[in-house]
């Protein structure tokens, strides 16, 4: 599959543009005293509290209270936030340069399962490291799960992207690092590329 065959590209954020590591957050919560944490949170699946945060149905404060139920009583709200944010590593400058360079060749969009807590962190990185007030300026349009009340791979979230921007499936490539999402998008008839561990999205261009 050649990227040049497409006119539109829908990028995932975590694991594609930003470097993340689920295990770092899992380990952080386990250090705080959460038992069997990987059973309720992983790259492939997550339980209700995380889904609800990603869909914007929980505030930061409500998320903290829910998480404290899984942790010893001495754990603070800030410790919960820090453990949750441990998943975030960095945004490589070369990926920002890539997005800036390809905007003249492709219509590019962002579609991300994310939440208000992580959003605050990588927006700060964008301001401090790259001079952008947020990452919306890099894309024609952005779709964040916590703002639209849906998470991938819900087919309705893809319908929203395609309908709002008048995209044709055969002209559009989705790039995602989660296999279960790529399998779903392919079943919806959307050409999709699974960016596997060790690959860098810049190599596709």
Tell me what you see in this structure.
There is one protein chain. By secondary structure, this protein is of the alpha/beta class. The chain folds into two domains: 3-19 and 91-204, HAD superfamily/HAD-like (Rossmann fold, 3-Layer(aba) Sandwich); 22-85, DNA polymerase, domain 1 (Orthogonal Bundle). The chain has helices spanning 22-32, 48-54, 60-68, 77-85, 93-102, 116-130, 145-148, 155-164, 179-187; strands at 8-11, 19-20, 88-90, 107-112, 141-144, 172-176, 192-194. The N and C termini lie close together (12 Å). The model has no long low-confidence stretch (mean pLDDT 93).
What distinguishing features does this structure have?
single chain, 205 residues, alpha/beta, Rossmann fold, DNA polymerase, domain 1, 5-stranded parallel β-sheet, two-stranded antiparallel ribbon, 9 helices, 7 strands, 41% helix, 13% strand, globular
